[in-house]
């Protein structure tokens, strides 16, 4: 089942550093500069993941609850919504960043010996998304509902038509690239057997 609409909070929001208001889902990456002095930074990811609060998608006719334990946020469109918080060398990590990392299960660099940054891509209430998953009964300790669940609930930022267009373009590129590679492989194999 696919549903598109606005995100709605079920049980509070995440506190995300640098964001006014809360978020319902946020992908993050803690990165360290491995570059050399006087050159542009070379960022290496130390830890990455996503945090999700209980949420629903409101399509205008009602809400469809999403199983937050099964949600995977597709990041392709999040690049436009992402931002970084710089953690300069030798300076203490801001409390908001340290508490976000601790809640994510990531050790915060106390006073980094090299430059670090925290990349964040939050999805806030009222953001438009498309959710794809299996409609089923979800039973958890203290909570039961009908909603999107299964092995993987995909959450794409944007409306359904825009998501379909992006996926179709990707499919065409992959199909075209696969066809070209097949022709090259067949041509190479033919050269091996033709005298």
From TrEMBL:
Domain of life: Archaea
Entry keyword annotation includes Transmembrane: yes
Annotated transmembrane regions: 173-194
UniProt keyword list: Membrane, Transmembrane, Transmembrane helix
Protein name: Uncharacterized protein
Organism annotation: Halolamina pelagica
Lineage summary: Archaea, Methanobacteriati, Methanobacteriota, Stenosarchaea group, Halobacteria
């Amino acid at each position: 089942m696919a549903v598109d609409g606005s995100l709605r909070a079920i049980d509070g929001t995440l506190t995300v550093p640098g964001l006014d208001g809360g978020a319902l889902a946020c992908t993050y990456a803690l990165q360290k500069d491995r570059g050399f002095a006087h050159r542009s930074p070379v960022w290496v990811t130390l830890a990455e993941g996503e945090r999700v609060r209980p949420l629903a998608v409101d399509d205008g006719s009602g809400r469809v609850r999403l199983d937050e334990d099964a949600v995977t946020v597709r990041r392709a469109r999040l690049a436009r919504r992402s931002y970084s918080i710089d953690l300069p060398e030798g300076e203490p990590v801001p409390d908001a960043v340290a508490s976000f990392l601790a809640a994510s299960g990531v050790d915060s660099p106390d006073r980094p010996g090299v430059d670090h940054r925290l990349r964040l891509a939050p999805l806030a209430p009222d953001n438009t998304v498309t959710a794809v998953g299996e409609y089923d009964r979800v039973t958890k300790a203290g909570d039961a509902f009908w909603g999107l669940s299964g092995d993987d609930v995909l959450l794409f930022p944007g409306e359904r038509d825009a998501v379909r267009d992006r996926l179709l373009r990707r499919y065409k590129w992959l199909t075209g690239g696969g066809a070209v590679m097949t022709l090259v492989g067949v041509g190479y194999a033919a050269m091996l057997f033709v005298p």
